[in-house]
TrEMBL record, chains A, B:
<dbReference type="InterPro" id="IPR001647">
    <property type="entry name" value="HTH_TetR"/>
</dbReference>
<dbReference type="Pfam" id="PF00440">
    <property type="entry name" value="TetR_N"/>
</dbReference>
<dbReference type="InterPro" id="IPR011075">
    <property type="entry name" value="TetR_C"/>
</dbReference>
<dbReference type="InterPro" id="IPR036271">
    <property type="entry name" value="Tet_transcr_reg_TetR-rel_C_sf"/>
</dbReference>
<dbReference type="GO" id="GO:0003700">
    <property type="term" value="F:DNA-binding transcription factor activity"/>
</dbReference>
<keyword id="KW-0804">Transcription</keyword>
<feature type="DNA-binding region" description="H-T-H motif">
    <location>
        <begin position="37"/>
        <end position="56"/>
    </location>
</feature>
<dbReference type="GO" id="GO:0000976">
    <property type="term" value="F:transcription cis-regulatory region binding"/>
</dbReference>
<keyword id="KW-0238">DNA-binding</keyword>
<protein>
    <submittedName>
        <fullName>TetR family transcriptional regulator</fullName>
    </submittedName>
</protein>
<dbReference type="InterPro" id="IPR050109">
    <property type="entry name" value="HTH-type_TetR-like_transc_reg"/>
</dbReference>
<feature type="domain" description="HTH tetR-type">
    <location>
        <begin position="14"/>
        <end position="74"/>
    </location>
</feature>
<dbReference type="InterPro" id="IPR009057">
    <property type="entry name" value="Homeodomain-like_sf"/>
</dbReference>
<dbReference type="Pfam" id="PF16859">
    <property type="entry name" value="TetR_C_11"/>
</dbReference>
<keyword id="KW-0805">Transcription regulation</keyword>
């Protein structure tokens, strides 16, 4: 079977899907969510508008799938197996959390992820419907992955039994996103480590 | 001296300034930062465009002052004296932090503050210059107020000596803003209390 034969339709679909995602992410980065249109995405991707509407009902649906795909690729680059949705569990909670927060720092410092993620976060902040979809599809699953890891550590006696896994998750993820979004300080591995250290030790004297 | 005499020019200025702020906050809430113009603010405030340009060099400058004024009014409503910039220090760090984070929850749940704050946060997320001004003028002073209170507690031996006051501040403020911005859960006094409790105790077993 050589590549010179009739093109494989599923491969062609995959190429179009990838072109649509790339165009959508580029446009939302360059012009913002509000000014990105299905027509503009189609033109930049070199596909017909009908092709987009065959697969997605709306601009928001295209962009959300593009972000999910981007996020899956980021996870794969960080070494996660395809479809892997759990945090590592080496038995050392601090080490596992440092590992994951350092990977998050790397992702947020990467312009390929930074710009479109800002655009979607900004749009979701002022558009409640898009914000709810963004949170449900992307953010909530990430938070639950952290909460499950902390719950397992609590069950194993490695975390204070009074810990609420959801609050503990937000203690780790919230500051990182806040510093990233508002650029209130450098986003480094040392910062990720300090966050884990403070969240585990707490502020009260021992 | 009766009010029927010639109008007091400084009082008239104050009325115009207030009208400009109200118009700016209403417009940015209704149409977003990008579509808010100096012309639109002037028309809604019932003042000339020249009046605005006499006091402020740009749209961003008007909006930033309107936000600073809004924030000062919110602080006054929360019981702070005018110009007061320090956290209460009753000697009980947990109680003082609960008090302040509960007031922040009330403010973020108030539509008068929620909508314009979202608009500015969203714009700052994608516009680095505006974001830097927003952070420098509004966010950074708030973070430093927390950091000074935690530093005082550390000096008094009420906080673990290994605590970095800045990281500790972000541990308290970051999750609250993250939950507010992305609507990942209810913003309640109980949540504020749980955050303080977890940040002080830490996750590690004692």
């Amino acid at each position: 079977m050589s590549d010179a034969k009739a093109p494989d339709p599923s491969r062609r679909s995959e190429r179009s899907r990838r072109a649509v995602f790339d165009a959508a992410l580029a446009l939302v980065t360059e012009t913002g969510y509000a000014r990105t249109t299905v027509e503009g995405i189609a033109a930049r991707a070199g596909v017909g508008k009908q092709t987009i509407y065959r697969w997605w009902p709306s601009k928001a649906a295209v962009l959300l799938d593009a972000f999910l795909d981007l996020s899956a690729r980021a996870a794969a680059e960080a070494g996660a197996a395809p479809g892997e949705t759990e945090l590592p569990d080496s038995g050392d909670l601090a080490a596992d959390l440092r590992h994951v927060l350092r990977a998050t720092v790397d992702e947020l410092n990467d312009p390929r992820y930074d710009a479109p993620t800002r655009a979607l976060a900004a749009e979701g902040a002022t558009d409640p419907e898009l914000g709810a979809r963004f949170t449900a599809a992307l953010l909530e699953p990430q938070l639950q992955v952290f909460a499950r890891r902390i719950e397992a550590a609590r069950a194993a006696g490695r975390v204070d039994p009074a810990t609420d896994p959801r609050i503990a998750t937000e203690l780790l993820v919230g500051p990182l996103h806040h510093r990233w979004l508002h650029r209130t300080g450098p986003l480094t591995h040392a910062y990720a480590d300090a966050l884990v250290d403070h969240a585990l030790r707490g502020l009260a004297p021992r």
